[in-house]
Amino acid sequence: MKNRRELLKLVALGGGAVYASGLAGSALAAGAKAAATPYDDFYFVQLSDTHWGFSGPPNPDAANTLKKAVASVNALADPPDFIIFTGDLTHTTDDPAERRRRMAEFRDIVSALKVKQVRFMPGEHDASLDRGAAFKEFFGETFYSFDHKGVHFIAIDNVSDPGARIGDEQLAWMKADLAKRPADSPIVVLTHRPLFDLEPKWDWATRDGAQAIDILKQYPKVTVFYGHIHQEHHHMTGHIAHHSAKSLIFPLPAPGSQPARTPLPWDPSQPNRGLGFREVEAEPDTAQYKIHEFGVAKA
Amino acid sequence: MTAQGHSRRGWMERALAFGAAPLLLAAARSVPAQTGEAQVVKIVAQRFHYTPGEFRVKAGRPVVLEFTSLDFVHGFNMPDLKVRADLVPGKVTRVSLPAATPGTYDFVCDNFCGDQHEEMHGRMIVEA
To answer: E strands along chain A, which residues?
Structure first.
């Protein structure tokens, strides 16, 4: 297969610049040096906040939205190296049996993904009421790290504690995990809630997120991808870029734009408005990540 | 996150069953009592409400909020005053607020408490 970046350059040369970057400060380094540097770029897909089990007016099509997204990911012309779900796989319930039933259904639906390297993270709807017990039964550990083609990925759990703490134990693990890598390694952090205080009045924060950022800021090449707020959002804390993803159930209003964080009303003329998933193209040599947003039904 | 409704009547019945009637009646008046300099406001926290959800106090004097949580370790977080607390059921949690300038001060439950957690928020109005 031709290198994805080469393919995109060919498309651009043909006048069809189809690949949009939504990143602040992420302009692709161009020029002879970048072109001459060996690299093994790749892309992954981020899906978030599927809330399987939700029903209500904000999404009358809730029983089908996730299935449509799975079909759209399967229809991508160039399959991703892997897929990450950044939390709120299921909608919360007080009933432990119902929680497990929703997780089982979610797992069955996403088993139709053609790409078999799929990683999962919990959101507060999955994990906060039982401290991640059911999630672990179905999807494994709530925090972990892995390497892929030169990029170090670290998944942080800021939801199993109902108070949105990462906790001292996990922070110590995170610090030790990162210390094993060269300081200039490209690092991608995956998490559910924003690590920074995006909108504390709406509980859009991580209580000890500042401690995580203090650890991360010691590394020069860090980018964070998260969910929770059901919309695309881009923010910088120092040199660290934070990018939230759209949801696959209903969109939420812009941070602080109205008194309450109520879902945006469903529009029958645009039933998938504000919903979607994204591709993230990683270029390990430059530690650049380019985002391409997709709607639910059309890839 | 949800937009599903809830039964206020059912909530009230459950609260009364918990023996919270005196607290609820005091809270519903939404009139701060005074202890010395501080203005005291009694608030009941229960999935997924604070009662009262909105109350008024006078500017320039400290405020003490007295929380009783009926069913969960709810949170109280008022970011504008950088004050938060865990509201443990079975005891009264007193939260002291500094004297504030006139305006509105929103607060939120920041301990995820269930399906309508996102609707559990309130507002303090400080009057001149």
So the answer is: 42-47, 82-86, 118-121, 144-148, 151-155, 187-190, 222-226, 233-237, 240-244, 277-283, 288-294
Q: At what angle do helices A62-74 and A96-110 cross, to 10 degrees?
A: 30
Say yes or no for a CB contact (<8 Å) between A164 and B106. Answer: no
Given a contact cutoff of 8 angstroms between Cβ atoms, the answer to whether B57 and B42 are in contact is no
Q: Identify whether B2 is part of a domain.
A: no
CATH architecture group of domain A42-253+273-294: 4-Layer Sandwich (3.60)
Minimal CA separation from B83 to chain A, in Å: 12
Instruction: Examine residue A143 and say whether the peptide bond preceding it is cis (omega within 30 degrees of 0).
Output: no
pTM score? 0.85
CA-closest candidate to residue A233, choices A270, A281, A262, A196: A196
Q: What is the pLDDT of residues A122-181, one digit of tens each?
A: 999 999 999 999 999 999 999 999 999 999 999 999 999 999 999 999 999 999 999 999
Count of the separate structural domains present in chain B = 1
The complex scores an ipTM of: 0.86
Yes or no, beta carbons of A207 and B115 under 8 Å apart: no
The widest CA-to-CA distance across chain A, in whole angstroms, is 59
Residue B66's CB is within 10 A of a number of other CB atoms, namely: 18
Inspect the interface and report whether the beta carbons of A56 and B2 lie closer than 8 Å. Answer: yes
CATH number of domain containing B123: 2.60.40.420
- Return the number of other C-beta atoms located less than 10 Å from residue A269's C-beta: 5
Where are chain A's structural domains? Answer: 42-253+273-294
